Amino acid sequence: MKGPEPDDGWFWTGAISDDGYGRFWVKRDAGQQSVRPQRYAIELATGQVLAASTPLLHSCDIPICVHADADLQPSHVVPGTHPENMLDRFQRGRYRNRYTLRLGVLPRPVRVQRSLDLRAVILDHGWHPELISAALLGVEFSHPRLF
Ligand SMILES: [Zn+2]
Fold first, then answer.
1. Chain Cα centroid distance, residue 138
2. Residues of the chain where predicted confidence (pLDDT) is lower than 70
3. How close is the Cα of 147 to the center of ligand 1, in Å?
4. Stretch (H or E) spanning 57
5. From the CA of 44, how far away is ligand 1's center (Å)?
6. pTM strictly above 0.70
């Protein structure tokens, strides 16, 4: 699901792996292969297949965000092979937006739960900025009064 603003996240709503990131399976010559949606998205956008060793930088730090653009300025996902100035931009956090959080550094079970909550919000409510922010902040969802 894509947010309405150009710098919004595009959130994966398919299967979520036990590390909090999305995952899906494709048939290849060697059989089933697991694919990371954010890698797939940037490969699709740029038309270039990434080497398995190429790390991806994720400017918004939301594991299920797959906002990939061939133009790397608006892209949230950028191959780690890009020039220094691009890496620098990410490290300085100049590309953060209103949903940006350091989810990547959360303990794994918390990160997984945030990803699941975020996906649930999107599937149940569509693009709802307040609920998305709440899910990212880890607001308790069993508390109906919040809504
Ligand atoms: Zn993003």
1. 16
2. 81-105, 140-147
3. 25
4. strand 56-58
5. 16
6. yes
62 CA → ligand 1 middle, Å:
6
Q: Could you tell me if 43 and 70 are in contact, meaning their C-beta atoms sit under 8 angstroms apart?
A: no
Output the CA angle 139-137-126, nearest 5 degrees: 80
Measured in Å, residue 129 CA sits from the centre of ligand 1 at 14
Question: Cα(8) to centroid of ligand 1, in Å?
Answer: 6
Nearest-5° Cα angle at 16, 55 to 134: 100
Q: State the distance from the centre of ligand 1 to the C-alpha of 31, rounded, in angstroms.
A: 31
pLDDT, residue 85, reads: 53
For position 104, what pLDDT does the model report? 54
| Pairing label, strands 77-79, 56-58 | antiparallel
CA torsion sign for 51, 33, 104, 131 is positive
| CA distance linking residue 136 with residue 121, whole number of Å | 10
Ligand 1 centroid to residue 78 C-alpha, Å: 11
The angle at the Cα of 19, spanning 40 to 21, to the nearest 5 degrees, equals 30
